[in-house]
Design goal:
Strand content: 25-35%
Shape: elongated
CATH architecture: 2-Layer Sandwich
Helix content: 25-40%
Structural class: alpha+beta
CATH class: Alpha Beta
Strand order of the largest sheet: 2-1-3
Number of domains: 1
Length: about 80
């Protein structure tokens, strides 16, 4: 079966986000009343797996091995059947 998986990777609280800080500053300079900007990455995967659980488990392994740094990143996984 094919599954579409979205993985959002964001920084854990307390870690600096220079890209977010720069974006917030530039938005304020443009006149927007922005307090904070946080930057995250979204990976969209199309993968084959025997079940929803297998797709989630494979994705969890990918996150641990490559997509996220457990020291500084949080991540969420959303798995759905692909047409």
């Amino acid at each position: 079966m094919r599954y579409r998986v979205k993985v959002e990777v964001s920084l854990k609280p307390g870690h600096s986000d220079p890209e977010g800080e720069t974006t917030a500053r530039l938005l304020r300079e443009l006149g927007y009343s922005v307090e904070n900007v946080s930057v995250s990455k979204v990976y969209t995967l199309l993968l084959n797996a025997a079940s929803h659980d297998e797709a989630a488990n494979k994705t969890e392994e990918m996150c641990r091995r490559l997509l996220a740094n457990p020291t500084k990143d949080n991540y969420t996984i959303c798995v759905e059947e692909a047409p």
